Every structure is written in structure tokens, then in C-alpha cells.
Amino acid sequence: MTHDLSTEQFPEGFAWGTATASYQIEGAVHEDGRLPSVWDTFAHTPGKVFRNQTGDVAADHYHRWPEDVSLLADLGVTHYRFSLAWPRIQPEGYGPVNGAGVDFYSRLVDSLLDHGITPWVTLYHWDLPQPLEDAGGWPRRETAEKFAEYAALIHQRLGDRVRDWTTLNEPWCAAFLGYASGYHAPGRADGAAAMRAAHHLMLGHGLAVEALRAQGAANLGLTVNLYPVDAATDGDADRDAARRIDGLMNRLFLDPVLRGSYPADVLKDVAEITGTEHVRDGDLATISAPLDFLGVNYYSRHVVRAGAPRPGPSQWVGSSDVEFVKRGVPETEMGWEIDPDGLYETLTRLAREYGPLPLYVTENGAAFPDEVTREGRVHDEDRRRYLEEHFRAAHRAIADGADLRGYFVWTLLDNFEWAHGYSKRFGLVHVDFETQVRTLKDSGRWFSEITRANAL
After folding, report:
1. Which one is catalytic: 26, 170, 337, 417?
2. Is residue 170 flagged as an active site residue?
């Protein structure tokens, strides 16, 4: 299937890639010295994941990585963003490195470079070593210090070949889905703990940047998941609801990193739940150390209105009365509204409100129900159209001043989609989880035209 490529050219050197996460694809959870992460524990807790599915095997990338690197080469990508499993490298979360775990990533990096693909490493995509959670997890300050030690140890071993490093992926999810709503690992439901976790994740980021800079690391960034937040009406209560959700979702992470302070209105919103005793002198200076880039994960928009407080745990700490409104527009299989304009708004907002900073879309993609035909094809026109609309929105943002330098599609392979198990498929490559057979989808074939032309 060939689609007409118009003249929407992307800047020379634009990074085209795909992104993955260790627990979602690797499997081999008990091999070569790896010990459990919080996601191993969570997934093996009955009722936490769809059909009690786990990442024990996932896409078996740990054994099939040579084939997966070949798929990346077929896609024509210039970059591959992947995360390291902390419990593979430091099984206890502290102490010496596990040589077999490091060797796995070292072989992967070498193979990527041999194929002309730049490795883009994420140090943390939610798989906290279980012993660190047992000791208190991210609500505990020491976890941030351990993270920086881990970052320094692995950089010593891969930093000679890996130039691009992302500290954290989506600290909002790790803090609020993990510790406030309990929807993600480790499954705790404590708003005050979630606020401490959010701070210590950001402190861990800052300490890791400090440690890597000391070793000469050149290209360091952070990835946050951002949403435009709109009020359902122009009423004061709805506009205040939008302010609160924007504060928790976006500004709670952007402001400390890019401005060196927490937004005062957000601290006021959560004051009944937690104070700021856990924020020590010097923390914000550490967190706001200059970055070389910011990664943006974008999927949808939030539209909200004021409502009545809901009982039970909520990821919206201090704002459980806010209601999320559906607009009746097309959605992905995740129930997320398809809104490419929101990507344009997010990228241009960053340029406008936070000043010049190189940006990368580090995740964007869509889940749709995919089937392999008798002829061995996957006709996923919905995904192809979704990606094209978002690529065009990104191109428009560049034209309007956003310093966007790359775009990583989520994701290379169908995988273990966290609490959804294997029920949601985001991949450019279909995976039959019974046989582990990989099939390049039509969207992947189309994407390979984009990467090679660097144009739409």
C-alpha cells in the first residue's frame, strides 16, 4: 500500500524512531540474575491485570532481540528508544551491577549501532526493583538517591556508545497511578504518598542528571506525558477544574524542571492532603539543572467540569470532584479521544510558556483491534491515519516555532499493555503471543516510507 507523499518536509536530521519499555516486551523475568520489579509483583496479584496476565514472557524480546533490531532496520528508523530494566542491572536496586544484565543491553546497543540506528536509552520506565518498594518505594527519599547511583553505574558501562539518555518516563503515571489510585504498580492508594513520590521521582531525575554530567554525559533529558486541559464550559467552576487538572497533570512536573519551583496554586490545592516537608533546601535547584531536551508523550486531551467528590482512591489528588467529559469524537480502543490538534497545542505551549528547548515526541500512537489476514497482512488503516494526522500536527508546530527534533512512535511491537495485559495492541508490528511470530502491519510499511523520505 503506497500513499502519496506531499512536500511536508521535516528538518534535516530529524529523528524518526519507535519506543518500547523493558517490562512490556522483554520477558525472561527470572533469567540471568534478574529479580522481581514492582510490576512482576503487581501483575502476579490476582485481579490487578486483565485476565491476570503478566509480563513473564511478554514479546520475548530478551531472546528475540536480533529479529527485532532487523525489524527496526526494515522500518528505516534512525533512532530506537528503549528502557533498561533496573532489576536486570541492579537486582536489589543497590549494590554491584549484574554482569549478565548489562551484557544483554550492551549487545543490543552494539547491534543497533551496526545497523546505523542511534540507541536512545530511558533509565526508568516504572519497573522499580521490588526490594526498594519494600523499603518504602518512591515516597521515600532514599529511592531517589539509589536511582542516581544506578544511573551512574550503567552509564559507566554504556556511555562509551550511548549518547542520548532519558532519566524518567512519565513520572506522573509512576507517582499517581502507582501510589494514589493504585491502578498501576505498586498498587498503593495514598494521596500524600503519591505527592512525595512525585517529588522524589523528580529529585531522582535531578540527581541522575548531576551524576551523569559528572561522567561527561552530553545529551540528557526527561520524558513527561502532557495533555491539553480544557474546561467543558466557560463557567468559573469548570475553568477552575481545568486549572487544577492542568496543575496536577502538566505544571507539577514542568515547573520544577524548567522554572525551579512548584506551582503555588497546586501546592494550595493539595495542602489538606500533604505539606511540603519532604521538599528540602536545594532540591529544586537539583531538579531544575539544565536539560538538553524534553521528551513529550502525547495521546489525547482532557475536557473537564466541576462535579461532586467521588469516594475511593483517585489519581487526581485533591481534585476527585472533577469530572472528565467525552465529546463524542472518534476514539482509539483505549477509549482515548483522537485529537491531533492537542499535540500541536502542547508543543507550541511549551515553546511559548517555557522558552526555547529542544523537544522530541517520545511517544505517540494508538491501540486498535488488529487481525492478521490469511495472506499474512494486518490492514490497520485507522492507525496509519492516526499517525499521519499527528505527524502533520507536529509539522505545523515546527512551522510555528516549536523546536521539535524527533518523533518516536509508540510502539515497535504489540506488547504487555500494563493493566490491560495483552488486550490492547499499539505496535507497528503485530505479535502473535502464542507463537511470538512478528508481522509488519500496513502502518509499519507506510511509516517506513515516511522515515526514508523524512517527509509527508
Report:
1. 170
2. yes
